[in-house]
Amino acid sequence: QSQLVDSGGGLVQPGGSLRLSCAASSGFTLDGYAVGWFRQAPGKEREGVSWINSSGRDTHYADSVRGRFTISRDFDKGTAYLQMNNLKPEDTGTYYCARERVVRGSSYYAGFTFGAWGQGTQVTVSS
Predict the structure, then answer these.
(1) Is residue 120 classed as helix, strand or coil in its secondary structure?
(2) Nearest-5° Cα angle at 124, 121 to 127
(3) What is the pLDDT, as a whole number, of residue 104?
(4) Which end of the chain has fewer CB atoms < 10 Å from its terminal CB, N or C?
(5) pLDDT tens digit string along 18-27?
């Protein structure tokens, strides 16, 4: 059972927008931890897309999405978001939210180790 619940994916035309959401399952929390988004395209390895630190003051983006994607978090709702604008066909893939956690099999990305995952939400950019 996934510790995080990610949602918001769908089919969108090039140039369109989607907002992905990430919430913690019962008994789990995002509070106090960095939250990241990863994606995996068919036939490719999973790659880091963005993270936001525990305070929400610092963010990081992959070069391929910088200027188009915005990561944020709502502390009242205990939720993190990835706003994706000007989507391109190469953005197609399964997107996973992740929480900072050091366990066996964790993934390191740009300064943080992510070890708790959502089930993934499919994003397809196609005309």
Answers:
(1) coil
(2) 160
(3) 86
(4) N
(5) 999 999 998 8
